[in-house]
Amino acid sequence: MAEKFYITTPIYYPSGKFHIGTAYTTALANTIKKYKKARGYETYLLTGMDEHGQKIEQVAQKNGKTPQEHVDEMAEAAQKLWELMEIENDDFIRTTQPRHERVVAEIFDRLMEQGDIYKSEYEGWYCMPCETYFTETQLVDGKCPDCGREVKKMKEEAYFFNMKKYAGRLIQFYNDNPNFILPESRKNELFNNFLKPGLEDLCVSRTSFDWGVKVKKDPKHVVYVWLDALTNYITALGYLSDDDSLMKKYWPADLHIVGKDIIRFHGIYWPIFLMALDLPLPKQIYAHGFIMMKDGKMSKSKGNVIYPEPLIERYGLDAFQYFLLREMSFGQDGTFTPEGFVDRFNFDLCNDLGNLLNRTIGMINKYFAGEIKQYPEKCSDIDKELEQFANGVITQVEEYFDTYHISNAVAETWNLVARTNKYIDETTPWILAKEDRKEELQSVMYHLVENLRKIAILIKPYMTHTSEKIFAQLSIPEELQTWDSLKEYDKIKNITVTQTPEVLFARLDPEVEQEAIKEMMKV
Ligand code: MSP
Asked: Nearest residue CA, atom 5 of ligand 1?
């Protein structure tokens, strides 16, 4: 039976239009899902919306809408974006759906009954945008330690979750599972800054607003948004519902993808909630970095926000995803600049990959009427060395994908693109043709096609259209388009490449396009 792989994105706040940061998180999860699928896993990708809370209530009010009207509109827009980005999510959970709300109320009830949640009074500094209370000492210069905004002193009757009870078990779990949180630096941060000094009990209900899941036995209280939101990962699978077959099949999650700003909720509170529910913990949580702009964080007031739609429309989905995945190193922040985007497009996609395909097809047509017969009987040392190089790249790429170092996987694939271009310069096919060294020339053409086939397989999880175009132009049979066929190098037989090669990426005029992208940021 196939192994399963359950991967999730955070569920997004419907507070505004999604920018490329949100798109990145989802593209990353989708890429990993598609890779796992190509490796034979039975995959399940969950995404959705985090629709409760005071902030949403306020945004709706500002737009003259009811919260429900507002979140309905936003959910539709989100799904449209995921369609545009061809995200292969298996479900789309919304925290306002009855299937979710019912279970959240029940979970709360249960935790109360078993004594993990107790009633008390809360007084503290509240950050409205983060919907989080802080103690005096946690504040930074009297402001929210997470977002730096103003906080307000508030006091309310509230329910608390007994975090202290589970802290020891969580510390033990961290010690037993050193790769639970990736990258390691984030784990150390959580461990040293939160777990080691001792956990505070967590306030898990609010009375200051209404837009949320009501506590069953005390309905003037609304369940804290993070307790509500985190449970989406199990409510979507049917936890505590009549049909919990997905829960049985897919839980525990193999990977939660989150941004570094929300790792504390996923790395500390979520595992503890799960312990209290007596459920297994997720296998891994990966915290990625932020997409920054030249002048810092994206923000509407700075006028430096860039949205995915116009970029995809003008440059295509593949180029957009290539840029994001390549530019964002494992766990680190990356920067979006119009110059960087246009350079990657022109150098990596147009010059390196596009030209490699075009030159290859052109030469096969010119020298062999478009035909590749079979693996050559005799290979040169350079041919053999190229085969070894390709094998090395494949092993590396797999390792990078398996450890979620996606930008390294992309970069490593481009090493193969570069090496293959260099192979043309080394073997000088035009001289072989002139000197009528047919056999050698045939071998060179075979190896070029073979490497392009491998490249097309390696990029398929994030550049599906380009991959398909390469297969089609080279007329690679289906059985040689699979991940399993990657390590074969001598199986191509009797193919005829296209006579009219299509340009994969047409060169951009840097000045014109940088201006165009800057215009996109003004909207
Ligand atoms: N609703 C919560 C998540 C609940 S999960 C149980 C939330 N939503 S969010 O919409 O504010 O953010 C969703 C994700 O987008 C987070 O992982 C966040 O890190 C990510 N990003 C927001 N801005 C980003 C960038 N500029 N760059 C990369 N990711 C960014 O938090």
From this structure: 10
